[in-house]
From TrEMBL:
Protein name per Swiss-Prot or TrEMBL: PTS sugar transporter subunit IIC
Pfam families assigned: EII-Sor
Membrane topology value: Multi-pass membrane protein
Alphabetical keyword list: Cell membrane, Membrane, Phosphotransferase system, Sugar transport, Transmembrane, Transmembrane helix, Transport
Origin species: Tractidigestivibacter montrealensis
Highest taxon listed in the record's lineage: Bacteria
Length: 251
């Protein structure tokens, strides 16, 4: 369990650290970080299901300027780990994940604020002509800040979070039911936020076509995705041909 706790701590640390954004930003979202946690804890399928549920409220997640509506980098891996080790169901895990994301906004603020110290230190090294030390200031210290603020709590959750499920069940049934209802509504909130960005006359029909294919025809997500990819290719080819005709190119 110690090894698993350390690995979960490293996953949570890397979700915030600059390393996770070098190639892709997928570590930012619970769907990927939670899956990695499930893989480490030996429950990849359960981890993927819980991570997907936690991810849905953050589907429309965006950080505009200094605004930080949540901390999915923490909620994803830590929420998934807590749910797996304590035996929470998907709806309860979603609610706990969102609560963690909301409460730990200050953790993200502290992480970014502390890292400003290394910027000034890097400037001092640059003024002295020490380029190597300047680069190290940009790369290394932020890892330890993230490990302390994010990794250590994740490690403690894996090591000591198992009783949380039993403690959670001691709540009155109406509170437990309330958590389940809220957990079921959270994904709808995320989808609603996403629709705000898709609220354009040219895009909305595609959303409702996908909804109709899944709801009325019973197609799986993979089938709908495959059909959407084919439609996108057809539209691209049609627009490309139309552009060539207008510009005098080959049809």
């Amino acid at each position: 369990m110690i090894v698993q706790a350390i690995l979960v701590a490293l996953i949570t640390t890397c979700c915030t650290w600059w390393f996770s954004h070098v190639v892709t930003r997928t570590w930012l979202y619970p769907l990927w970080s939670g899956f990695l946690v499930g893989l480490v804890l030996g429950k990849p399928v359960e981890g993927m299901m819980i991570a997907a549920a936690i991810n849905l409220p953050y589907v429309g997640f965006i950080t505009a300027g200094g605004s930080m509506p949540g901390n999915p980098q923490f909620a994803g891996p830590v929420g998934t780990a807590l749910a797996l080790v304590s035996g929470l169901d998907v709806n309860s895990a979603t609610t706990v994940g969102v609560i963690l994301g909301s409460v730990t906004i200050m953790v993200w603020t502290a992480y970014m604020s502390i890292n400003t110290l290394w910027v000034h230190m890097a400037e001092d090294f640059l003024n002295k002509g020490n380029i190597r030390a300047m680069r190290m200031c940009n790369y290394i210290p932020s890892f330890f800040v993230s490990f302390i603020l994010n990794g250590i709590p994740a490690m403690l959750v894996v090591l000591y979070g198992a009783p949380f499920g039993e403690w959670f069940q001691t709540f009155p049934q109406w509170i437990v039911d309330g958590f389940g209802i809220v957990g079921g509504l959270m994904p709808a909130l995320g989808i609603a936020m996403l629709l705000q960005y898709l609220n354009k006359p040219k895009l909305m029909p595609f959303f409702f076509i996908g909804f109709a294919l899944a709801e009325f025809m019973g197609l799986t997500t993979m089938m709908v995705t495959f059909i959407a990819a084919l439609v996108a290719i057809l539209l691209y080819n049609y627009q490309s041909d139309s552009t060539k005709k207008l510009t005098g190119g080959e049809a």
